[in-house]
Amino acid sequence: MRTLTLFFIWAAALVSTPAALALDSRANIERAVELIEAGQHALARAYLEPALIDPRIGPGERSRAYYLRGYSFFAQQLFVSAVKDYNHALEFHPGNPVVQTALAQMHLEGLGVPASPRLAVMLLEEAAEAGHDPARMRLGIAYLRGTGVPKDIAAARHWLGVSAEDGSAPAMTYLAQSYRDPFTDQPDPAEARRWLTRAAAGGEADALAYLGFMTEAGEGGEADAAAALDYFQRAAAGGSAVAQAKLGHAYLTGAGVEKDPARALALFQQAAEQGHPTGFMGLAYLYETGTAVEESRERALAWYERAALAGQVDAQLRLAYDGLRQNDLAGQQQAGRWLARAAAQNHPQALNDYAWLLATSPFDGVRNGQQALTLALQAVDRRRVPAYLDTLAAAYAETGKFQQAVETQREALALVPEGNAELAAELETHLAAFEAGKPWRE
To answer: What is the pLDDT of residues 275-294, one digit of tens each?
Structure first.
């Protein structure tokens, strides 16, 4: 959690030092906390420097100083430095759950270090067992989503339930999600609503947004668009980025409300300010189309990139296709980078498109037949359609397996819908190349 509450949950059992000996360093640490709260991170680090080298203070206090400096780096997105200081903090106070949770976030999101969800979960497990509530909630979310551990609804509900019963409204919201599709194959809308209602009463605006989604879809009752809209409006007013993005789309398209692009712009901006990927996507679309703003391809791409870096598959694909349109090596390399990110999320279209690029690119430095074959098989396993079979045939051809390429391409042709002569002609052209023992090149 990116809040200063972490400073005040600092674990007990710090090794004490006589106050007279370390008074200045202790005072400097407390002054640094005030400066960090005020957003003056560089100045806070200047106050922390003496404590980091003061031999008179104990290891617990030095650990806290390193943690605070690490947090100040984190707040300014200086993630490599933050990781270093978090690790130093653990060296002086091993097992501190506050630091473990902060470091877990870095490994979970790949901030300053390569992403390592399993290591993040190991840190969270130890912190959760020590009773650190933010760690318990994050661990529950990891089990809910299957991040770093196999998905385990029972374990998710255990850790989220412990945190929820202690009064954590965000934990209540996630616990409610565990009773809904797609997290469980045995949905319990009544239980989901019960926890969302408790979370909303506890001030969690996102809980109101999810109640809106349930009401809109008719989960556990009749669908009610007007009641859902009321939930979304209340949630957005309460600061829910989820609801702000949802309402932004509604005002953009006129779904249940009168079209108002300017209102959509304001809502997308509010969501984006909180780091919500859908807010980024909304702003990207507005700048791309010149809706409520001056059209700007550069700004649109910048917002798409922020969404893509946040894991939004649609944005990753949008940037990949932008690279392909450049029709040069640099563009195809750009496409490959974004398609790889999208394919890593097991998105069928991304798996297929990345496989096609790796199998058919005219550039030797881009093609990778074996990787293309692996990805194409995964895509076909999810959707056995003509386009995906065409890609699989191209991957077989790129690896020299022309008999399999021909057989697969004939299956693709057999599945072409009647009347789609254009697709059939394209596949026939590819088939002719495979029958001649030639891979296909775009």
So the answer is: 999 999 999 999 999 999 99
